[in-house]
Amino acid sequence: MKRNEKLIRTKLWQYLLPGIMMTAALQMGNIVDTMLVGNLLGADAMSAVKIGMTIDNIMEIPGYVLGVGGSVAVGILLGKREREKANRVFSVTLAVSLICGFLFALLSAASPALAEMLTGGNALTDDVAGFVFVTLLGAPVLSLALQFMNYVAVDNNPSAASAYVIVSNVINLALDYLVLKYTPLGTAGAALSTVLGYGLAMFVLVVYFRSPKRMLKFVNPFRENIRESRNPDHDAKNRPEGNAKEAFLLAASAGIPTLLYMIFITIKDLGLNTMIIRLIGNDAMAVYTVCANVVLLVMLLVGGIIGTIVSIGGVIYGERDYFGLRCLVKNVLVYSYAVLAVLLVILLCFTQYVVALFGITGGSLLEISVPALRIFVFCLPFYLWNKFLTTFYQSTEKTKIAGLVTSLQNCIAILPAAAVLVFAAKSAGLDMLNALMASFIVSETVTMCAAWIYRKVNYPGQGMLLLPDEENENILDMSIEGTLEDAGKVPREMIEFCKEKGADSSKANLLAVAAEEMIVNIIRYGGKKVNTIDVNLCITEHAMIFRIRDNGIPFDPTDYTVDSGEFEVHGIEVVKSITDKIQYMRVLDLNHSVVEIAAGED
Fold first, then answer.
1. What is the phi/psi pair of residue 537, to 5°?
2. Nearest by Cα to 584 from 570, 574, 594, 597
3. Sheet holding 581-587, edge to edge
4. Which 8-state DSSP code applies to residue 411?
5. d(CA 234, CA 247)
6. Number of alpha helices (DSSP H) and beta strands (DSSP E) in the chain
7. Cα–Cα distance measured from residue 259 to residue 281, given in angstroms and rounded to the nearest whole number
8. How many Å apart are CA 436 and CA 226, to the nearest integer?
9. What is the distance between the alpha carbons of residues 97 and 93, in angstroms, rounded to a whole number?
């Protein structure tokens, strides 16, 4: 019996649709927001919003970094079954993000000065100031939104996370149309609609907070010690799990690539916006805004697919399920590039219609927009690959290479490339806007090559994913059908494997008995959904560890008592009596149980 991809594929599809819908709603909200501003307020207002997004990016840094970094850390901790440590990370990042949101709200009074700094005091200054003022004032709401969007999906509720983002953006766009068309608020109205959308939609999260599958709980983030288990019978040591500082550093460390992304994308926007406005002109700024929204369009359709790596990959990595991780990556890349291929055909064949969606329908502005966009789209295949690398490496604790890729992609490569090509085009009397578009192709290619070189130098002999070899002589990894016949095969395979590895035969027999009892109970009481069960036996120097993963109804064997009143699950008490440790976690909406027998003397 060999390991198969069935459970991983099932989870991928379960998370894929909500992930795509969530990302689509998020990006669609940004894109349609820009379209409404361009069509209802004009190209200058659209440019002002793009410029004001620089402050928005800065304001989102704490919430975004701690939300993404915290959810990655929590996913890995849940995969390791360290629930209380995960609760501490969740609580600390939520509190810190909210505090930062209120501090940014106080800065709203400085909006006019910030706008003048961004625009150099030109005609766009007032529109930028209005947008920045409302955005900063709504920072506490947006900070909470960034936290929940990341944590809810990791915590067994991808549908609730998706519903929250969808509802918030529906409210945002409805308010956008009404406010921009029927009030004099202008760009400030666009920012107000966004804040209200994310604030009013929080009622949707009631579904998450009342979900029985929810594993994360808010705890006092500043209490020194928290316990690992609610069941002292199975966690005699009740070991402490650190303090608020350690939890914050854990989330911040995982969020370093995201922090670099936010910092460098802000620097990039400042540099490119200044270069475009002062060297090429306001019309070029409108074209660049369209191109930036085309990237959002790509992420609308593909970002949700890549995002499953964060929701699923971190948990699988925490469990050290490298087979499952490779399966996940393979499917994510196939689906992502299939979607991108279709999108590229549309962008290249119907460029004029794409540009028209942003209110550019004629004149000289349309004439320069079409060729510029057609050049720009050739950077997208490389952009997608670099985005995948950043997401994957961040989710598997390879923060240095993830930080390198995101830094190059979002600033270090693009700004020099843009400066060189634009000034070269100016000196040669060529089109500076088209040279700017070509610089994106150059920068994405440079980023991809730099990541390859870094990998070869720092991880010689390892594959692209930087994971241990699949073949491990101390691990037995297999999948079985949810039948009693297959359940009977597992202990025989385990005993034979332990014999080959020279493991203690008496302990191997005990573990085989425990494994059979647990698998039989899963098949009998797990419900109709149980059709595949992943099992894993790992022999270490200190213990023999047996892991089981199934998609049955939630059932925690560590909390089970015979007189539970629902049904009598035979064998659980036997398993508890013959093993040294038993753990359970509901992660990825799957039951994950681990039984362990120490390798020392009896």
1. -115, 125
2. 594
3. 475-481, 532-539, 543-550, 590-598, 581-587
4. I
5. 24
6. 23, 5
7. 31
8. 54
9. 6
pTM: 0.72
φ and ψ at residue 540, rounded to 5 degrees: -115, 180
- The Cα 384–Cα 439 span in angstroms is 16
* CA–CA gap between residue 290 and residue 355 (Å, rounded): 7
pLDDT digits (tens, 9 = 90+) for 25-83: 666 666 777 778 888 888 888 888 888 888 888 888 888 888 888 888 888 888 777 88
- Specify the pLDDT at position 32: 74
Q: 44 vs 47, 435, 568, CA distance in Å?
A: 5, 23, 70
Three-state secondary-structure class, residue 485: helix
Encoded tokens for 373:
């966009």
Q: Which residues of the chain have pLDDT under 70?
A: 1, 22-30, 222-242, 469-473, 527-528, 559-571, 600-602
Residue appearing with tokens 């997608």: 384
Q: Using DSSP bridges, classify how beta strands 590-598 and 581-587 pair: parallel, antiparallel or unpaired.
A: antiparallel
Kindly tell me the sign of the dihedral angle through the C-alpha atoms of 13, 18, 22, 28.
positive
Distance, in Å, from the CA atom of 457 to the CA atom of 575, rounded to the nearest integer, reads 48
The one-letter amino acid at 544 = M
What's the Cα-to-Cα distance from 266 to each of 27, 159, 169, 341, 494, rounded to whole Å? 18, 31, 23, 29, 55
Helices marked H in 501-588 — which ranges? Answer: 505-525, 572-578
